[in-house]
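Running low. Got one?
___
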Amino acid sequence: MIETRDLTKKYGDLYAIRSIDLKLDEGDLFGFIGPNGAGKTTTMRIIATLLQPTWGEAYVCGNSIYTKPREIRRLVGYMPDFFGVYDDMTVLEYLEFFAAAYRIKGEERRKRCDELLQVVDLDFKRDAYANTLSRGQTQRLGLARVLIHNPQVLLLDEPLSGLDPRARIEMRNLLKRLGEMGKTIIVSSHILPELADICNKIGIIDRGVMNVNAAVADVMKQVRQHIILHVAVRDNLDGAAQLLRDHPLVNAIETNGKVIKVILKPEVRDYSDLPSLLIEQGHKLTLFREEELSLESAFMALTKGMGQKT
């Protein structure tokens, strides 16, 4: 759906982005993470054909940004960080205006606008003036606008910026639903936790260079060197700890109150024998789970030292 090769943009001697290689398939929700000024917006504008690269190539659904920009614009919905709304238009009139720009006519236009107001949960604001909406409502209206022509690809530049906690949750849920509908989505943010639970792929960019570009599962695997288990038994904690300590799969044991922290050896991925062993030896399990590694922790580990001056 989206592919870039050696995508580079220079302003004089300054690289806005340098050699960006990216490949996304249908239904991917790509979290584009990086500080302000890292190159996220530049990359998205080039993919949307709103900016020419200095060199490199980008394709959307097989269409080159150089030879088929008009076809790409029909396939893409681009939502900038901040966008204007018209003071004298209601929410419904605002959507109908952009539907008309895409030559959606008559009953089909009204039907499409009504459907999108339901999707973004703004039907109750259909007759309100667009400039009276809250920041979160304005962002949802902007998302409805870029969906008006039913694009296959969505490029969303910091859609969660400036939202209150409730509005962030609502927007994340909406992005999840769009991904489930088969849309290919690039969503940027400078705050990782905003995207950590909705993306299947992430890219980390700093000073125009993509330092990490992988599936979330692969990032987790790369960072986690050992599987860590949390185990608790009803009684005889010391006996259970000693049993686990002596097992060939176990690298180390730590006890914290009534919970045993079991650190497995680096190569171990299958530990299904451990709970069976404990039960066979008469221990009654009250807890047995793998410690989760958050994407935020992975991000911190992968970017340790990144951006420091050398």
Q: What stands out?
A: Residues 2-214 form a domain with the Rossmann fold fold (CATH 3.40.50.300). The longest helix spans residues 165-180. The chain is about 35% helix and 30% strand.
